[in-house]
Amino acid sequence: MKTIFLIGLATVFAMLGMTGCGDGGTNANVNVVRTNTNANTSMAYNSNSGSTLGNAANSVANAVSKVTTDSPADFVKDAAQGGMAEVQLGQLALKNSQNPEIKKFAQMMVDDHGKANAELKTLAGKKNYTLPTDIGSHKSTLDKLQGLKGADFDKAYVDEMVSDHESDVKAFQKQGESGSDPELKAFAAKTATVVQKHLEAIKAIQAKMK
C-alpha cells in the first residue's frame, strides 16, 4: 500500500513538472511572437523611413536642378551683356595690342560675337525679352584693360578671355541642353560650338606666351 502511494505521488510530481515545462514553452512562444512582432515593426519603420528619405532626396535634387538651370530671360540678359563686352574688349585689343595673333583673335571676337548679338536681338524681340543696354559687371574689366598697353595688356586680355570663355561655354551648353525655350536652346547650342572654338584659340595663344 505504501509503495502504491509513493508511485502515485511520484506521478503527481511528474505531471506538475510537465505542466511547468509546458508553461515555460508557452512563455517562450509568447516571447518569440513578441520578438518577431517587434522585429517586423522595426523593419516596417525602417522601410518607411527609407522611403521618406528617398523622397526627400529626390525633392532636393529637383530643386537644385531648377536653381542651376537659368531661366530664358536671365540667360538672354547674361548672353547679351557678355556678347557686347566681347565686342568692346575685342575693339580695345585691336588698338592696344601689338601681338598679331591677339589682334587676329580680337577681330574674330568682334565679328563672331557681333553676329551672335544680332541673332540674339532678333530672337529677343520675337520672344518679348528685354535686352540690356550696358555690359553690366564686365565694365570693371573694360576699365582695367583700358589703362594697359603692350605686354601688360596682352597678358591681362588673354587671361580674361580664357576665363570668360570657360564660363561662357558652360552657360551656353547648359542652356542648349536644358533650356525651356526651344528656339533659345537652338541658339545657345549653336553659339556654344563657336565659343568653344574661341576658347581653344585663346588657350593656344596663352600657351605660347608662357
Notable characteristics:
disordered N terminus; globular; 210 residues
What's the structural blueprint in terms of helices and strands?
Blueprint: H1 2-68, H2 72-96, H3 100-127, H4 139-146, H5 150-178, H6 182-209
Summarize the structure.
The protein is mainly alpha-helical. It is 88% helix and 0% strand.
General description of the model:
It is a single chain. Helix 2 runs antiparallel to helix 5, helix 3 (100-127) runs antiparallel to helix 6 and helix 5 runs antiparallel to helix 6. The model is unreliable at 1-68 (pLDDT under 50). With 210 residues, the chain is an all-alpha fold. It has helices at 2-68, 72-96, 100-127, 139-146, 150-178, 182-209. The radius of gyration is 39 Å and the shape is globular. The chain folds into two domains: 1-68; 69-209, Ferritin, core subunit, four-helix bundle (Ferritin, Up-down Bundle), CATH 1.20.1260.10.
What is the name of the CATH superfamily of the largest domain? Ferritin, core subunit, four-helix bundle
* CA(first)-CA(last) distance: 121 Å
Radius of gyration: 39 Å
Largest sheet: none
Structural class: mainly alpha
Could you say what the CATH architecture of the largest domain is?
Up-down Bundle
The number of distinct structural domains comes to 2
In the predicted model, the low-confidence regions spanning at least 5 consecutive residues are 1-68
Which fold name is given in CATH as the topology of the largest domain? Ferritin
Number of helical segments with 4 or more residues: 6
